[in-house]
Specification:
This protein is mainly α. The chain has helices at 3-16, 29-56, 65-72, 75-94, 105-119, 134-137, 139-154, 157-180.
Length: 185
């Protein structure tokens, strides 16, 4: 099996038994290429999760903070916040501490990942949705958080910041392209 597939197998193995890596992968081009190949599949899983969300909770009927930010702020501010500030701050809060634990890695990994996902529920106006649908709203962030935690444990927080920024860049990039081409969003 070639290296680009090994990262996914290792990710799945990591989810079964989270562990501290004594030998960290360097933030190198070959390693990041592997990570990004795995990320593409994780991003596809996020898209599938969003489709499931739409079946359970009509997202177009729920206010989202990103929508409000787009209406109230500049595109440049939104881009800086989503692609630079949020990944940096969130990775330092939710992923950096994972590397401090050589014992109880599973508890810390899953605990911080679920907190990360739950934190993103506040992106929505929760008063518009029944409480039991809230976990569905954060399913994409849960999937992303699992992968980011794995990348952080395998390498370092810089790697997870890059992947997180790329994750946010994709939808923001499409939105900016649509906006610049005059499409109504």
């Amino acid at each position: 099996m070639d290296k680009k597939h090994n990262i996914l197998v290792e990710f799945i193995d990591f989810l079964k038994r989270p562990r501290y890596y004594d030998q960290k992968e360097a933030l190198s081009v070959p390693f990041m290429n592997q990570v990004m190949m795995g990320f593409i599949l994780v991003f596809c899983a996020e898209i599938v999760a969003m489709g499931l969300m739409q079946l359970i909770v009509p997202l177009d009927q729920i206010d989202h903070s990103l929508t409000n930010m787009l209406e109230d702020g500049s595109l440049f501010q939104m881009f800086l916040l989503a692609v630079f500030a949020a990944p940096l701050i969130e990775e330092l809060i939710f992923r950096w501490p994972m590397g401090l634990f050589k014992n109880n890695v599973g508890f810390v990994f899953y605990g911080l990942t679920f907190i990360f996902a739950g934190f993103h529920a506040f992106n929505f106006d929760l008063s518009q949705t029944p409480w039991y649908t809230w976990p569905v709203l954060v399913l994409p962030q849960l999937i992303l958080g699992l992968y980011l935690g794995f990348v952080r444990m395998k390498s370092n927080v810089g790697s997870s910041i890059i992947v997180h920024a790329y994750n946010n860049l994709i939808p923001i990039g499409f939105y900016l392209l649509a906006k610049m081409s005059g499409m109504e969003m």
